[in-house]
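Could you please consider the sequence and fold appended to this message?
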Amino acid sequence: MADHYDVLGVSREASPEEIKKAYRRLARELHPDVNPDSSAQEQFKLVTHAYEVLSDPVQRQQYDLGPQAGFGGGGFSDFGDIFSTFFGGGQQRGPRSRMERGQDALLRVEVDLADVIFGVHKDIEIDTAVVCETCSGSCCQPGTSLSTCEICGGSGTIQRAVRSLLGNVMTSNPCGSCRGYGTTIPAPCSSCQGQGRVRATRSIPLDIPAGVDTGVRLHMSQAGEAGQAGGANGDLYFEVRVNHDDVFSRDNDDLLCTLEIQMTDAILGTKVTVPALDGDVTIEIKPGTQGSEVITVKDRGITRLRGNGRGDLKVGIHIVTPTKLSGKEKELIESFAKGRKQAAPQLAHFQQGMFSKLRDRFFNV
């Protein structure tokens, strides 16, 4: 394999500027547009590859250290990048497509806690881009169509000969007349001004599944804004926010609430029917019920998002102690207390149980 320094005709101590000058001098002699001889073309490949390696400080250092440094040959695939350094410009292959995919959108939707028990359907009004009804996305006035660009002949690019140090070099740039599309719109649609879409308000039917919680995102493929010139629609993402409820709170799939009962109900026991989020529910208060006790009503919670069945309704008991007593009521209570042998008030051991999950109701946390 030829030594890169010998190929360029420079010493191993040559500066980057000397290497660049040597390459420019040889390229003027060997470039295929200047010298069509096949041997010159092969030599030009060697010169270009040598310059590619020696002009890069990292590759040059690896080359100077030898094969053991992990230097890779590289090949001759980056001629275009090197010429771009000297002559600028780039090439576009084929005309651009007018069709562009619409953008995705993220919207927020609010639901009540009652809605997530079984799921809910909502029609969401959004302002977005829709396909133009006048031209059906073609961008052209009805009865007309796109025309092949007369300047570039439908290629979307213009080639020009540019004089350079290497002689005449062909460059390729997007056509300024059609903007690289290869076609023009002789009669743009009057409704969309040649875009193929217009702004409009439309209704999106959204089925929110049971069990969702705040932060859950729902994805609707190709339900977003229409693409330009008949391009595919973007996607819609809905982020759910579950509104606060004044009576019920949530612990995963369970519903939590607090039931206030009178002291006499706790002593004697009773049954009470209260409205839940999905209908009335009957709560049985057993005689001797203690404050902070939790009564569980099975399968009256939230339907599980991923799975079968529902969570439970958990009712924390809060005993209301009367603050104002009539004289007769006070006598009855005193008589009741005297007739029972009661232990003196004392500190109890801390107990952590189901009641701790209801602390937001009792302590307004």
User: Anything to note?
Assistant: The first helix runs from residue 4 to 8.
